[in-house]
Task: structure prediction
Amino acid sequence: MPTTMLTDAAIKKYPPAEKGRVEYFDKDYPGFCLRVTDKGGKSFCYYYRVKGAGGLSVTGRELVGPQRRLPLGQFPRMSLKDARKAYGEAFDLVEEAKDPAELRKAERLSQNRSRGKTVDWLIGEYEKYAMRNGGPKKWLDGDVQGKFRKHLSPICGDLSLDLINRAQMRSILRIIEDKSAPTVPKEIIQRASPMFEWAVEEEIIETNPFDGIKRTPDNKRKRFLTDKEIIAFWKATDQMYYPYGPFYKLLLLTGQRLREIGSSSWSEIDRDADIPVFILPPERRKHGADALVVPLSEPALSVLSNVPIFSRGDYVFTTTEGDRPIDGYPKGKARLDRLMLEVLQEDDPGAKLADWVNHDLRRTVETGMAKIGIQPHIYEQVIGHAIKGIEGTYNQYHYLPEKKAALEAWGRYVMKQVGLGDDNVVELSEVR
Result:
């Protein structure tokens, strides 16, 4: 923690930190410092403690609160003179036992709401910043812009910045992970985190929602719903109604991906065929894989029978009368979690619901089918995993009868758990 006399000339000469950041504290201004990062970025900030924020001692003396850091501005956009002026104003507030960070936060949030600052707005502002300051190179090349526009904007582009938090960002990344290449979530974290950190430095937001999120998402998840959770899941979806209630039920009954079911259309469903099917075309499959034929079990057909058909458009699950598919997945999942927890706590007030993501429903189907004796090569076909190696090259059999039998067996198992079926006998002769 170097202490020095900050001057404009000295600030210009300070080299980048060897690692992370280094802070130079002004010996004449308590708590006032210049932060220099390993990228060469320089910014002013103020470290302080508020008297009384730590409560009272046993003798009634006011205790100071924890140390806090107030960003003041970036150099050279903010001069040393202006930084000291901002520091003085904040210092006076601290002397009055007021927290300048909290006051600024309240003012900023009010401004954000009134001005409608959204994630898309931030992307645009950061783009301008990158153009003015000559980097980041990948952003200027269009790579980052493209990924943000493709993956972030459709999910949270219109979300107000004052509503963004770490939990919500985790949900957004899980949606991205579910419908994109495995490397995309990592790239989003690597590129979006500096953007949000810049927003913190610019006092647009209070905290970076990517702080604490691993750069490499956990690709070895083992989470699946237990039988008790399946019961809670079904009862919760009964309370959600259309479109999210039946949508989530079909995810559980078919084992398909979130977007594959969420963007399904009636033209992809043939309920009158000898074997009723849902045909997922290549353009809607992950990585452009071959078309996938998913047999529809009796429970799945029962769910679809209660789904309305609109004349305006062909989408099965919609809030726009079929014109567009549903897209409010984070809100739908959050409500489902709340309802599941309520169901679990009806019998056990202390019950908890372990964290799970939408993609875990596919693992639930896999695990459940294995549990009732269905062979791995069949349930892998059901959920749409490609046959690997040379066998995948020469084996063009689509296992339609076997997939039908497997999904019917799984459907009966689920119905038995939720109290809607008595037949728990699984016929495996057609599934092997």
Residues 3-98 form a domain with the Double Stranded RNA Binding Domain fold (CATH 3.30.160.390). The beta strands are 3-4, 21-26, 32-37, 42-48, 51-56, 62-64, 68-75, 269-270, 277-280, 292-295.
